[in-house]
Design goal:
Blueprint (H helix, E strand, L loop, with lengths): L1 H13 L6 H15 L11 H8 L3 H13 L3 E4 L3 E4 L26 H16 L19 H11 L1 H7 L1
Antiparallel strand pairs: 1-2
């Protein structure tokens, strides 16, 4: 693997690309994966060995591996080394849309659901049922709930009123 990376590195050096060296390392790994030269679970050389082979600073190689990891190309584990992750197949969802699921972001409610939540909360305030909202901290909660906290909770929830004074 060290010789594969070194030969690709020297190929990029002859082209005199203006990209920083750490980005070139990540690009070389991506090119190797796309061409099929690097296979999933292939072990990458240790950082120090690659730095010596490419005549680069250890920090530059570390940044290159970090960039490759950020792009999802490699996995690194302290004491075990760095390995090629490979391509993750994308599966088209029905309707042709897809979501990036790595962040586990919840889907935002539609206008109809948001309005139903708002109406339900206002109904609870109209009936003076404040106990539902007393567990919400002053700085937490969704932006749509914060105005209700300011208008009703300070005066109607003993714990909330004590915190503000």
């Amino acid at each position: 693997m060290l010789t594969k990376l070194s030969s690709r590195w020297h190929g990029h050096q002859t082209q005199n690309t203006p990209r920083p060296a750490y980005l070139l390392i990540a690009d070389i790994i991506a090119d190797g994966i796309n061409s099929g030269e690097f296979q999933p679970r292939d072990r990458l050389p240790p950082l120090r060995d690659l730095a010596v082979s490419l005549s680069l600073n250890y920090t530059t190689v570390t940044r290159g591996y970090a960039e490759a990891k950020r792009r999802g190309l490699i996995d690194s584990r302290p004491g075990l080394g760095s390995y090629i992750r490979g391509k993750v197949p994308s599966v088209p969802l029905s309707g042709g849309s897809s979501y990036e699921m790595t962040m586990n972001s919840p889907i935002e409610p539609g206008e109809e659901l948001a309005q139903a939540i708002s109406d339900g909360a206002m109904n609870l305030f109209a009936q003076k049922i404040y106990s539902v909202f007393c567990a919400i901290r002053t700085l937490a909660g969704m932006p749509m709930i914060r105005p209700w906290q300011r208008c009703g909770l300070r005066n109607n929830c003993p714990r909330s009123a004590k915190r503000r004074s």
